[in-house]
Amino acid sequence: MNDADLTIWGSGSWGTALAAHLAENGRTVCLWGRAEAQIERMRTTGRNEAYLPGTVLPDGVHLTANVEEAATASSMWALAVPSHAVEDMAQTLRPYLAHVACAVSLAKGIDADTGRTMTQVMEQVWQPNDPPCVALSGPSHAEEVALSAPTTVVAAHPDKQWAEAVRDVFMTDRFRVYTNTDRLGVELAGAAKNVLALAAGICDGVGYGDNAKAALITRGLAELRRLGHALGAVPETFAGLAGIGDLVVTCVSGHSRNRHLGEQLGRGHTLDEALDAMHMVAEGVYTTKAIHRLAQEHNVDMPITAAVNAILHEDADPHRLMERLMARAPKPEVRPASS
Ligand SMILES: NC(=O)C1=CN([C@@H]2O[C@H](COP(=O)(O)OP(=O)(O)OC[C@H]3O[C@@H](n4cnc5c(N)ncnc54)[C@H](O)[C@@H]3O)[C@@H](O)[C@H]2O)C=CC1
Ligand SMILES: O=C(CO)COP(=O)(O)O
């Protein structure tokens, strides 16, 4: 096969949901997974029971575990592996870069060691070939996209023609794609909302209630805007789909793995226990440290992120941290983004 509209790298819940939805809407999609046995099971059953139970894969989804076959299947690649696997995946794809006209980052995370966004990671590995790397993000739980429930996202690249090229491949009657030239803001927002979703889950697990959750979402957005300002993102991006949109859905949804993991921590389970009970990725666990470090390096006040970091990595007690957050010095609600 070499005439697919799109190759999706990663056959977890997000890669599978997008492949199924797009194929249902007339696209031909090559879906690559690293485990031959899992791909074979998907071929036989027509489903991905491990990551997206119940969804039937339409005929337009071509399944493969062969890298060369997937790389040459189309000229648009979308990386749907977790953020900690993006650098390795990009390395694996280097020999095939002549085939790609445009790449899409679907992962929502920040590189834990370097603080780079996922498109920065891809661009660094792929230079000097430099295929344009577009970020696609927004409130989009795989389980709902697979059911073709109405969903809106944003495709972001500094050159709007590449954001539009991605929009044109991904947009359907039920999957609406906006464009934005602030790729950095879109990626920061997509990553940081996972940290705040952990906080929302902890809040649920402890039983603090809806007022506290609304406060976490609102003040979480404020600290995300401050980080974005320090790093050069556009403030309006955080009021958009990748910002408040994804923050709301991830903090309240029963589908969110990050919120769920936070809830387990709030109920008193250790991080290891909570992770052992999940087979899907909860990006916030890796991203919290990276965002906390970025905040320190750029002197940005991010008290909620700092509290989540302390719960995850310093075994801090959520009650004590909540008391500390509430007892901080009084402040005006609206401050200049730089303070
Ligand atoms: N599930 C969702 O609703 C959405 C997820 N995302 C993002 O998409 C990314 C992927 O998430 P999911 O598909 O949900 O995760 P998942 O946990 O459901 O699946 C991850 C997939 O990546 C594969 N994988 C793991 N390490 C790999 C490696 N080193 N090389 C190749 N493949 C590897 C796994 O085998 C699995 O197929 C994450 O960054 C997530 O934040 C974005 C939007 C929605
Ligand atoms: O990004 C998502 C929804 O937009 C998925 O969130 P979780 O990874 O927390 O399930």
**Order of strands in the sheet with most strands:** 5-2-1-6-7-8-9-10
Q: Count the domains.
A: 2
Total DSSP E strands: 10
The class by helix and strand makeup works out as alpha/beta
Radius of gyration: 20 Å
Judging by the overall fold, what is the CATH architecture of the largest domain?
A: 3-Layer(aba) Sandwich
**Ends distance:** 54 Å
How helical, in percent, are the residues?
40-55%
Annotated CATH topology of the largest domain: Rossmann fold
**What small molecules accompany the polymer chains?**
1,4-dihydronicotinamide adenine dinucleotide, 1,3-dihydroxyacetonephosphate
Strand content: 5-15%
Largest sheet: 8 strands, mixed
Number of helical segments?
Answer: 15
Order of helices and strands: EHEHEEEHEHEHEHEHEHHHHHHHH
For this structure, what is the CATH class of the largest domain?
Answer: Alpha Beta
Q: Overall pLDDT, averaged?
A: 96
Give the overall shape, derived from the CA principal axes. Answer: globular
CATH superfamily of the largest domain: NAD(P)-binding Rossmann-like Domain
Uncertain runs: none
Verbal overview:
One of its GO terms (molecular function) is NAD binding. Residues 182-322 form the Glycerol-3-phosphate dehydrogenase NAD-dependent C-terminal domain. Its main location: cytoplasm. The protein is built from 15 helices and 10 strands. Helix 8 (183-206) runs parallel beside helix 10 (241-252), helix 8 (183-206) packs parallel to helix 11 (257-266) and helix 8 (183-206) crosses helix 13. It has helices spanning 13-24, 36-45, 67-71, 86-93, 118-126, 142-145, 160-170, 183-206, 210-231, 241-252, 257-266, 271-276, 284-297, 303-313, 318-326, and strands spanning 6-9, 29-32, 47-48, 52-56, 61-64, 76-79, 102-105, 133-137, 151-156, 175-180. The radius of gyration is 20 Å and the shape is globular. With 339 residues, it is α/β, with parallel strands linked by helices. It has an 8-stranded mixed β-sheet with strand order 5-2-1-6-7-8-9-10, with helices on both faces. Strands 3-4 form a two-stranded antiparallel sheet. 49% of the residues lie in helices and 13% in strands. Bound molecules: 1,4-dihydronicotinamide adenine dinucleotide and 1,3-dihydroxyacetonephosphate. The site of 1,3-dihydroxyacetonephosphate has 14 residues, from helix 8, helix 10 and helix 11.
